[in-house]
Amino acid sequence: MTTDTQSQEMTDGFNLVIDALKLNGIDTIFGLPGIPITDLTRKMQAAGMRMISFRHEQNAGNAAAIAGFLTQKPGICLTVSAPGFLNGLNALTNATTNCFPMILISGSSEREIVDLQQGDYEEMDQLAIAKPLCKAAYRVLHAEDIGIGVARAIRAAVSGRPGGVYLDLPAKLFAQSIDAATGKASLIKVVDPAPRQIPAPDAVQRALDLLKTAKRPLIILGKGAAYAQADDDIRALVEKTGIPYLPMSMAKGLLPDTHKQSAAAARSYVLPEADVVMLIGARLNWLLSHGKGKTWGGKDHKAWGGQKYIQVDISPQEADSNVRIDAPVVGDIGSCVAAMLGGIKAAGAGWPQPSGDWLGAIDERKTKNIGKMAETLAKNPSPMNFHSALNVMRDIIKDNPDAILVNEGANALDFTRSIVDMYKPRKRLDVGTWGVMGIGMGFAVAAAVVSDKPVIAVEGDSAFGFSGMEVETICRYNLPVCVVVMNNNGVYKGTDVNPTGGADVAPTVFVKDARYDKMMEAFGGVGVYAKTPEELRKAVEEAVRSRKPTLVNAVIDETAGTESGRITSLNPTAAKKK
Questions:
Q1: CA 143 – CA 163 distance, rounded (Å)
Q2: Which CATH number fits the domain 4-186, given the four candidates 3.40.50.1000, 3.40.50.720, 3.40.50.970, 3.90.76.10?
Q3: Domain spans of the chain?
Q4: 103: β partners
Q5: Which of 154, 182, 203, 468 is the most exposed place for a label (fewest CB within 10 A)?
Q6: Mean pLDDT for each consecutive 10-residue tract of the chain (578 residues)?
Q7: Of the candidates 495, 531, 481, 492, which has an alpha carbon nearest to the alpha carbon of residue 414?
């Protein structure tokens, strides 16, 4: 006779992790297999999840982070313990800094061994290390708590200001068995994980009242505005007010860069001259000179230019972080913009438009600067420089506005940001708040996976080196990614020399005429060596058309470029020379 206990259906930690993720609509995992999670990756794939396996955990983590930005669901990165966890932790911390929803799930050693420091395989107190570097960190010790652990991680990642979450799963957890009915009942489908946060009506009115008084208003759009996916309302707010706007790099395309109200080509004029600045999902951090200094009309780097600020942000702690915020509007950006738009519509014809003098002065500078840029882009030097190469990329993105542009480097980043126009939201992905190198291939892989759109990654040769081995990953999954390496033989440029006259090259110099294109060919992709704009154009257009993994080695004049792009002053030696 069979007892009830013997006939009872069982489940285990492996399946409960999978079921908890799938229950919450998560079907794609980025990671790298190894002890103790190899079997979990196999079981995930067997359960119908897409398991994208990388060559380095940091790149998998970057992929998960940008997937979260693009989808508003937490991207999942799965790593092994200790060194693998630490590799992923870099990406997790970057995700938190950039407000990308991401969950790093790592296997770990058993608590009783870690706490007694008994020397287990890859022993490390991972939870303690992760806590100060991410938004939240949790550990699950019992199979019946997996559902709660996953639910808490999801809610923490996407609610309020999004960010990175660490979920620690000790190896022993996966093999724990409980009856299937109990396991199923323990799982949680998260309801409304990122609830709307409605702004206070008086805060909205205060902001509108201040905006009405402005003679020289300016709107700054940050990547938080892009993440919000409130595209129609943001566009309506800009157009109904008639206020010039300045997009931060990952907000480019919320409105086309060619929009008549874009002040991007007059940035150095509008920042110090604006009297009321409305920040929407943008922070007054180093990317905006902290709202101080000559950039904003101050007399020195500590001086405040005297502008009045409206700040739309989901975090009340962001207000007054660098300068006084006169009208904070706290709530999710979609709700805040909708509320402000409602107030403007209610005013009807009574809503004041910016002065003609302000708009005319901006247009005059835009016309002048765009003309100068056109003259520069029209030149065709040999070898190519950044401008002539990026003029090609500018045309290709214009012809393919649905393509996603990934961009990193120093000069490759700065020049691309100012030369290549974007036409649709969330199509430009770059280094973000920290300005870190190495996001390129992880971002490119994730963008292709979650969007199924062509991806063009414009990389400095130095930046490409941080994640270049992932071209094998691109080929393995046959992703429609075209990598363009701006190859000028070094960091910033390839002309530095060893001051001692010794045999070693300067720290910033690479192997001359390196054949990065051969890397892609080695894994079955298409490699192209391009020395002219015509060769570059032909190669990238063919890559977009064919959707084949492609790497174009774009040979750039090694004397082209400047140190650290636009942030040379952050180098202490350069700062002393100023």
A1: 26
A2: 3.40.50.970
A3: 4-186, 201-362, 379-577
A4: 76, 165
A5: 182
A6: 62 98 98 94 97 98 98 98 97 98 96 89 94 98 98 98 98 96 97 97 97 96 98 97 97 98 97 97 94 89 89 96 96 98 88 94 97 94 96 98 97 96 98 95 98 97 97 98 97 93 94 97 98 98 98 96 68 53
A7: 492
